[in-house]
Amino acid sequence: RSASAEDEAIDAKISWTLSSLIGIQPEGEGVRAPATVQRPRRQRQQPTARSRRDEVGGEQQAPLEAVSSFTTIRATDLVTVDVAATSLDDAPRLLEELQQVGMEDGEAFHKVVSGRLPVSAIDKLPSLPRLHYASRSFIVHRGAFDLLGSHDVATGQTTSQADAAHHVDVVRTTLGVTGRRQRIGIISDSFDTSRSAPGSAASDISTGDLPRDGVHILDDFNGQESIDEGRAMAQLVYDLAPGADLSFATAFKGAASFANNILRLAKECDIVVDDIGYGSEPFFQDGIVGRAAQKAAEEGTPYISAAGNDGINAYQAPFRDSGKPTVVDFGGRTNSLVTHDFDPSDERVADYQLISVPVGNDFQIILQWSEPWASASDAPGVGSRSDLDILMYDMADNLLNTKMATGGLDQNVGKDAYEMFAFENRGGIDVDGVPGADTVFKLKIVKWEGPDPEMMRYLIWSNSWGFPLTHFTGAPTLWGHPNMKDTLAAAAIYYADTPRYGSQYPTAEPTTSHGPTPIFYDTQGNKKPAGGDIRAKPDITAADGTHTTFFGTPVDNKVAPNFFGTSAAAPHVAAVIALLNEWKPGMTPKEIRDILFETALDLDDYIDLSQQGPGDFDEGHDYQTGHGLMDAYAAVTSLDNMPTCLTKAPAAEVACSATDGHCKGTSADNALVLSVEDGKGSLTADGEDGNDCISVTISEDADDLDLVKAVGGRGSDYLVIDGKVPSKAKVEVTGASSDGDDGSRDTILLRIDAGSDGRGVEVTVTNSGEGSLISGSSTTDTILNFGVTKDEKCRADVIKVGGLGSSQLSYDDSRGEVRAGDKLVGMIYPPLP
Which of these, 379, 431, 383, 439, lies nearest to 410 by C-alpha position? Predict the structure, then answer.
C-alpha cells in the first residue's frame, strides 16, 4: 500500500505492473519485472561444452539454471498496455491522448485502448482525465479479423511450443492448413530401435503424438548409438503439420549411405530434413553428402538441415611459419617440422596453444585446411598438397601423441585435408611443478610438407570440458551440407525467447553454429577465384527447447522433456514448408526460401565475429540467425489468392444491413460486413469477384427471415458466420459462385450457435473444377468448426456436394476429408469424429 497521497493517486489509476517501472534511469541496468508470460529458461551451454551435430542428443547434457519468469525492462523499452477509458465515448479521445505521450500501435475497442507505451511515459498516465485504469498486457494475440480463429483440438501428450512461437496455430485455426498431401522425409540416427529411449512408435501413435497411419521407415539403424532422435523430430513435425505424411531414413550408416538416403527420400517426399553431420564432410569444398542435398533441392525437393550446435567453437587462421621448427622423433627417425605461429602479430611468436583439459575429460578437434579433397573431387589425381599434423605436449615438452593421445598424425598429401585429434586426461601426468595431476597442455600444428594453406580451421568436436586457454577468439562452425547453396540451414532460438512468449529482445541460441565457411574448390578439385564462394548461412531461425514425449531433459516443467539444439529447429522449418506447399503446390525451393526470408522477423547477431560483442543491430541476413525468426502466418498469408482480410493489402469495405436484401461486393477484393437483426424474406451476401472476406452476424431475433445466404463468388474467399441460427430461417453458405467452382480455395468459419432445435448451417461445396483431385487439395474448400459451436457444443450442420447423394461420398475422420470417389471435395478442421 502507498504511503503518500501522490502514490495513492498513482495506484488509483495504474497497476503495480506499471507503477513499478516508474523512475527507471536511462543509464541504469533496468528493473526486473514479470515477463508477458511465465518464461522458463534453460542455462546456455558453457562455451567449453559445445555439442556436435552428429552426436545426437548431446545438447541435453548441459547443467540447468533455476527457472525464472522475470525479465529486465529498461528505460528505453516499450511495454504493451491495456488502458480502460472512463466511458465508451471517451475511448477515442483517450487513444489520442495516449498517442500524444508516445503510444505506438494504439487501438481502441469499446472502452479499452491498447498499444505499446514507452516506459518513460508511464508516470504521465495518472494525469490523463479520461483514463480509468491502466495495466501491462500479459497476452499477445495476433489475428487479421477479430472474428477469425476456429477451435484447435490438440492431440497427443505433448505439443511443440514452436506451434505458437511461429504462429502456426494461427495458420491452422484461421485457414485449416495442416500440410495435407505433403510427405516429409526425416533423416537422423534411428526411429524405433533404441533400447534406452522411453516409449515406442506404437505408443506415440496410440497417444496421438504420431500420425495414425504411422511413419514409412525407409531405412532404420539398430545399434548401441540409437536414441531414436528421428522419432522425436517426427513428433515436432506432426505437431505443426498434422496433415502431412512422414517417412524416415537413417544417416548412421556412413556418409555414402547418408547421401543415398537423401536421394531416396527426395524421390518419395515433398520435403526432406536432417539433423546429422559428419566430421569427414569437407569444410572448404562440397562433399558427397552436401552434393546429394544440393541435388535434391535442384530437382525440386526443399532440403532443410540443422545448422549445428557449435557456436563459434573453432580456431581459424592462415598457416604461418613461426620460425621455430619442432623436432620430433618417430620410430627412431628425427624430423624437423615447420610449426604454426598462433600469434597473428608481427611482434610476438607463439608456436603452441595452451589447452585446459580437466582430469577425466578430453579434448577432441577436427582440423581441416584449404586444399582439395580426394574424396570430394571428381577429377582423378586430386588431393591435398599439404600435410599438417597436430601434436600435444605436457608442460615439460614431452610428446603425448604416442602415449595418451590418438590421431593427428595422418599423411595427407594426395588425400583429404583433414586431421582428427583426441586427447584424454586420465590424471597420470604431473610435471608442471604444482601438486596434483596436470590439467594444462601444449598443442602444436606442424607441417610436414607442401605449401602453407591460406586457411585452416579446427573445430572442437567433443562435449567435454577441454578448451583452449590462449589465442582462441572463435570462428565459424557451420560446414558441410548445411552450407550448400540451395539447402536451408536452420539456426535455433529457445521458444521462450520469442515474442509470442513475451520476449521483447528475441535472441538466438549462442550454441547455434555460425557462418560463413568459404568454398575454395569445385567438385573437380579446381581452385575457385580468390576468396572462394561465400554462402549466406545459416538461413532461418526456428524454435528449440520444445516438448516431446521422451527426448531431452525436462526444463520448464517436471514431466515433458525439452528438446534443444538445431536438431529441434530444423523439423519445425520442414513443417512450415508443408503448410506453404498445401496452400500453393508446385513452388520451387527457391520460391519457398524467398517467402520464408521476406516474412521472417529480423534478429541480431549478438556474437558478431567481426567485433566479438553485441555492437549495432545487424539488419538483414547475419551469420548467426540467418534472415531471422520464421513466421508461418506471415509466410502463408503472403501467398497468392489469399483472402483480403488476411493480407496487408487494403480492401474495399462494404457494410450491409438486413434491409438491403442482396449485399454485393465488387470486382475488387472486398470486406463485406453484414449484421442481421431483423427483416423478412431472404437475405444474401455475395462477394462477387475478388479474394473477398464476408462476415455475417445473425441475431437470434431475426425470426421472420426465411433464408440467410453467404456466397463467396469467384476468387479465394473467407466467409465467417457468427451469431445464432434463427428459429425459422435456413443459413446457407457456399464459397463458389452461381457459375460453379472457379478452382479457388474458399475458407468457411462457423462461429454460430445452434438454433433452439439444434439446427445448424448448410454448407455447399462443388464437385467440379480443376484441382479437386486429392493431389490438388489447395483448391478444395475448407470448413472450420463444422458441427461445433463456440462453446464446443454440437450443432447439426450439413455439407452438400453439388449433384451427389450421401451414398456417393466418404469421410476420413482422421484427416477431416470429404471425398467423392477419388476426388477431395471438402476439408473439415478440426476433423470431426
Answer: 383
Question: To the nearest 10°, the Cα dihedral for 41, 47, 48, 50?
Answer: 70
Kindly state the cell numbers that stand for 340.
Answer: 604454426
Residue burial 311-325, b: 16+ Cβ < 10 Å; e: rest: bbbbbbbebbebeee
Residue 789: all three cell numbers together: 459451436
CA distances from 82 to 132, 172, 505, 681 (A): 11, 27, 21, 43
Measuring CA to CA, which residue among 735, 731, 664, 747 is closest to residue 698? 731
Cross-strand partners of 216: 247
457 pLDDT band, cuts 50/70/90, is very high
Helix (H) and strand (E) counts for the chain? 12, 41
In which region does residue 236 sit, left (phi positive, over 0), alpha (psi from -120 to 50) or beta (all else)? Answer: alpha
- Give the C-alpha separation, 545 to 117, whole Å: 31
Strands (E), 293-439: 303-306, 314-317, 326-330, 333-339, 353-356, 362-369, 387-393, 405-407, 418-424
- How far apart CA 518 and CA 225 sit, in angstroms, is 32
Cβ 772 vs Cβ 779: under 8 Å:
yes
Amino acid 42: pLDDT: 33
Give residue 767's pLDDT.
64
Lowest-confidence region among 60-74, 180-194, 487-501: 60-74
Closest CA to 623 of 536, 686, 698, 711: 536
* 8-state DSSP, 227: -
* C-alpha grid cell, residue 88: 465508451
Q: Are 531 and 329 in contact (CB under 8 A)?
A: no
Cβ neighbourhood burial of 523 (10 Å; 0-12, 13-18, 19+): middle
Identify each DSSP E strand in 727-775 by its residue range. 730-734, 747-753, 759-765
Pair 53, 275: CB distance under 8 Å: yes
Residues ≥6 apart with Cβ < 8 Å to 143:
149, 170, 174
CB atoms within 10 A of CB 469: 11
- Identify which of 505, 586, 589, 584 has the alpha carbon closest to the alpha carbon of residue 539: 589
Question: Cα(805)–Cα(584) distance, rounded to whole angstroms?
Answer: 30
Query: Which are the contacts of 34, defined by CB distance < 8 A and separation ≥ 6?
Result: 17, 69, 70, 71, 136, 138
- Grid cell digits, residue 215: 511413419
- For 667-724, the pLDDT digits (tens) are 888 888 887 776 667 788 888 888 888 888 888 777 777 788 888 888 888 989 888 8
- Say if residues 772 and 780 touch (Cβ distance below 8 Å): yes
C-alpha cell at 309: 550446435
Residue 657 belongs to what H/E stretch? strand 652-657
Please work out, in degrees rounded to the nearest 5, the angle formed at the alpha carbon of residue 372 by the alpha carbons of 384 and 391. 45
pLDDT of 2 reads 47
- Whole-number Å distance between alpha carbons of 351 and 338: 10
**H/E/C letters for each residue in 186-222?**
EEECCCCCCCCCCCCHHHHHHCCCCCCCCCEEEECCC
pLDDT range class, residue 56, cuts 50, 70, 90: very low
Omega into 538 within 30° of 0, i.e. cis? yes
What the block records as the C-alpha cell of 731 is: 443459413
Look at the alpha carbons of 58, 64, 68, 70 in this order and tell me if their dihedral is positive or negative: negative
pLDDT digits (tens, 9 = 90+) for 238-252: 999 999 999 999 988
